[in-house]
Amino acid sequence: MAILKKVTHEGNKYSLGTIERVAAETAHQSIDPRPNQNGIQRVTVAEATTIAATDTLVDFAVDAGSSRVVTMPAALAGRKIKCIWSVEQATSDRVFTCAGSDTFYGNITTLVEGNAGGDGDVVAVAGSTVAITCVDDVNIGSYLDFDCAVDGAWFVTGILIVDAVGSVPTLA
């Protein structure tokens, strides 16, 4: 005796036997309802960081004792990565580098902490940029977003809250 279950999907009613119902439920469970939002990397040690291909959020939760390199994954269309600072970066630089022949382009806004006028700079990132150095002056709440619309190029935007006007990122 087959167990039947009435299922409604987009206005249509279906009667599914036990085997079909189990298969349908299993297929539904394998669909990721949040594509491209599955990996969080929390950096808590002062060493070089490689962002994994599955990471979409990177939390810099350590003030690195010396300059640290952050190696990006390959820039593949559709990828998105957000990097946030939950600990002040006061000791050394953090250098974002591209994988292979990938490049960065976009704009990074810097704001000076405690400046009521909100004065700061916008750093234009040319399409030939392969490294972005965030100097040792980045405060909690700063972030950089990396989006890839075409293979081989990361579009970077974000806001870095810094201690002084001259503490803008440098590009190479």
N→C terminal distance: 71 Å
The H/E string reads: EEHEEEEEEEEEEEE
Estimate the strand proportion: over 45%
Query: How many distinct beta strands?
Result: 14
The biggest sheet, with number of strands, parallel, antiparallel or mixed sense and barrel status, is:
7 strands, mixed
- Total helices: the number is 1
What would you call the structural class? mainly beta
| Main β-sheet, spatial strand arrangement | 3-5-7-12-13-9-10
- Overall average residue pLDDT: 83
Instruction: Estimate the global geometry from the Cα principal axes.
Output: globular
Number of domains: 2
Query: Which stretches of 5+ consecutive residues score pLDDT under 50?
Result: 18-35
Helical residues, percent: under 10%
Radius of gyration: 22 Å
Structure description:
With 172 residues, this protein is mostly beta strands. The chain folds into 2 domains: 1-31, no CATH class; 40-171, no CATH class. Helix content is 7%, strand content 45%. It contains 1 helix and 14 strands. Strands 3-5-7-12-13-9-10 form a 7-stranded mixed sheet, with no helix packed on it. Strands 4-6-8-11-14 form a 5-stranded mixed sheet, with no helix packed on it. The chain is globular, with a radius of gyration of 22 Å. It starts with a strand and ends with a strand. 23% of the residues are buried.
Task: Describe the structure concisely for a colleague.
The chain has 172 residues and is mostly beta strands.
